[in-house]
Amino acid sequence: MQEKGNISIHTENIFPIIKKFLYSDHEIFLRELVSNAVDATQKLKQLSGLGEYTGELGDLKVDVSFDEKAKTITVSDRGIGMTAEEIKKYINQIAFSGATEFVEKYKDKGDEQQIIGHFGLGFYSAFMVADKVEINSLSHAEGAEPARWICDGSTEFEISEGDRKERGTDIILHVNEESLEFLNQGRLQGILDKYCKFLPIEVRFGEKEVSEKDGEDKDGKPQYKTVKKDNIVNNPSPLWTKSPSDLTDEDYLAFYRELYPMSEEPLFWIHLNVDYPFNLTGILYFPKVKNDIELQRNKIQLYSRQVFITDEVKDVVPEFLMLLHGVIDSPDIPLNVSRSFLQADSNVKKINTYITKKVADKLNELYKKDRKEYEQKWSDIGLFVKYGMLSDEKFYDKAKDFALLENVDGEFFNFEEYKTKTEALQKDKDDNLVYLYSTNPAQQHAFIESIKKKSYDVLKLDGPLDAHFIGTLEHKLEKTQLKRVDAETVDKLINKDEKIESVLSDGDKEKAKEIFEKAISDANSTVSVESLASDEMPVIVTMPEFMRRMKDMQRQGGGGMMMMGDMPDQYNVSINANHPLVSKVLKAKKEENKEKLARQAYDLALLSQGLLEGQALTQFINRSIEISAE
């Protein structure tokens, strides 16, 4: 039997398009060919289950091998096989998918979701790396004869009698000179590990040496020997394909270690399992989050019927959940022809919404089940929750019930609890509730202590997203303002319109202002003399809340006015008219001593905030020595 003919296509340019543009990465060829081999095996199993194939199934492993000398890569299966007519139908007519036809034929008789292929183009990815491709196949059909198909990458093919003795198909690639990198054990193993790690049929790539126990010596110590075993590259029954009720915590942790061998154990996980209105399975893990958000991204792997597609899942998974780790598998996520990336689709939006809801439900469950444990994990959980509340309106509405606020004393409150705690004391003259916060409790300790004297509470908002989260809280919480502890003097932070009498006359106040302005000599600082409590600091340096917040947001990655980063820092310098040191400054006999004391008090205020450095710090130290020696 020998026949020659032309492949049925409408353009002579189809092969250059396939080779150069259909697949962005040439290594995809192995994923496509192995997936096709798995498809052929799945079809045979399905026919056997339906009673339409009665022969022995035998060893159904898919084999991948290469011959460096012959420059060939071979993918073999013992699946359904093809007759010469089927090869002409499925291979010569580009984009006629045998998987699609098979699904249509048996859609009422079995699980069509097991069949991977759809477009019928995957086979032709072989020509990205091969000058010539051979198919040697024997159909499962009784009395079928083996067939061989050969094509050199042009539109011509040759089909003849094959020599395969067992049911199934061999695909033999004669690798071109530009692709010799693929004739390498490590390179092929890497591709198989990446794309075929969880295919539903075992994939064998030669053998590997393993250490095996071989009895004991005379002292009872175990002895080992090295043996060769099949190198099975995949786990055909990954955890997400199983029922959550059959799994233990250790199963989930072991699978996480399989996915991310170098990572710390996750905080908890969510098992996704839905079949309506779309099919979706998977496991999402909440990792222990580091401060660098960007390092956490692209850790979710997207599969379609256990074939790895991509780890860029921004359309399927909401932006704020890109920090999660794990696996999502869905046959209903639309892929482009090369199965390399997603296409926009209503199902993608539904899946996105579903995942958001599942995460919110899980967090709410954890919050209600064990509040104490939830609080202990808040430093990690909080980043997800805040990110979600910032970026997703619907998630905010759910999360406001389980989001927590932590104060500088390590106490946790939900939103309603914190409102109750503060509303008696922390309302200003206009009936606005004022939440005070610190971004660095150690550095802002003096301000926090001053605030605590008035029995006010201080929140700790020092996370990578808190500069943005503050604005969201102000927008969402009715008649509520947030002010950083060092944005104003304590009386102005929560302005109750209470007057404190000054021990200085108006003339003395003006004189004190002149002395301090001259001593400070900084065009970016605005000096004022104010009547504060006598136990407050003599000089308090603050940055207005608006400017402070814009700078924090700009420093933490946009969201504010970019120009703020280029503007010089503007400070308010409040001189406490009721502090004894200010009176001492005024009473000093020499002008130079007045300025020296004023500058010393100012530098102390800077020092308390970590703002004193360089030459100014050196001068402060020397001046301190002088004053102590006087």
What distance lies between the first and last C-alpha atoms, to the nearest angstrom? Answer: 114 Å
User: Main β-sheet, in a few words?
Assistant: 9 strands, mixed
CATH topology title of the largest domain? Heat Shock Protein 90
Radius of gyration: 36 Å
Provide the number of structural domains.
4
Family: Belongs to the heat shock protein 90 family.
Organism: Reichenbachiella ulvae
Keywords: ATP-binding, Chaperone, Nucleotide-binding
Pfam family, one: HSP90
Describe this structure as you would to a colleague.
The protein contains 19 helices and 22 strands. By secondary structure, it is of the alpha+beta class. A nine-stranded mixed beta sheet has the order 1-6-5-4-7-3-2-8-9, covered by helices on one side. A five-stranded mixed beta sheet has the order 10-11-14-12-13, with helices on both faces. It is elongated. This is Molecular chaperone HtpG. Keywords: ATP-binding, Chaperone, Nucleotide-binding. Belongs to the heat shock protein 90 family. InterPro entries: HATPase_C_sf, Heat_shock_protein_90_CS, HSP90_C, Hsp90_fam, Hsp90_N, Ribosomal_Su5_D2-typ_SF.
Which features characterize this protein?
single chain; 630 residues; alpha+beta; Heat Shock Protein 90; Ribosomal Protein S5, domain 2; Rossmann fold; 4 domains; 9-stranded mixed beta sheet; 5-stranded mixed beta sheet; 19 helices; 22 strands; elongated
